[in-house]
Specification:
mainly alpha; single chain; about 120 residues
Length: about 120
């Protein structure tokens, strides 16, 4: 059962990434390109998936990815999560996702300060 739940979670992450970054789904293609060029290049794909899994699922994040997130910056983090949360399939729970985004940021800042 845990394997099935894990597979569903990974499927959700992949679908969220596709919806967020494929231009046909985006509201403004230039906005997606700008986010990619300025923000996503600052963080590893592994950590980006972990961050999405934390905000849009029930995953946890490791200290290394927390450091990457803080280096990426709050503006990038806020904008990327908001951009994904604005997708039609996710908009109904946007408030929850934005709270989880802010909680993750606070957690990672605290982790980064202790290192």
């Amino acid at each position: 059962m845990a394997k099935f739940t894990s597979q569903i979670a990974m499927l959700f992450i992949v679908v969220a990434l596709v919806c967020a970054f494929v231009p046909v789904f985006s509201v403004d293609e230039s906005e997606a390109k700008s986010l990619w060029d300025t923000c996503l290049v600052k963080i590893s794909p592994h950590c980006a998936l972990d961050i999405i899994a934390v905000v849009f699922g029930n995953a946890t994040i490791n200290d290394s990815c927390c450091h990457d997130l803080v280096q990426e910056g709050k503006v990038c983090h806020d904008n990327l999560i908001k951009y994904i949360a604005d997708r039609p399939a996710l908009i109904a729970r946007e408030t929850l996702y934005l709270k989880k985004r802010d909680d993750l940021w606070s957690h990672c800042v605290a982790i980064s300060k202790t290192a």
